[in-house]
Amino acid sequence: MAATLFARWSQENFFSRRLAQFGTLHLNETIDPVKVEAFVANKAAAHDEIEHLQLESQEV
Hints:
2 helices, 0% strand, mainly alpha
């Protein structure tokens, strides 16, 4: 039972860190279309990874 609780705690911490990283992705300067495109792609990839990992964790 302790292993299960530790695994769940670890998983929750992992998701908290990923969501925090996702939340820190924001623009701080004037908009350059090339940078915006890269920024949006990076943020979308992070969001997709978070969703995938959450779905995967629900299956366990």
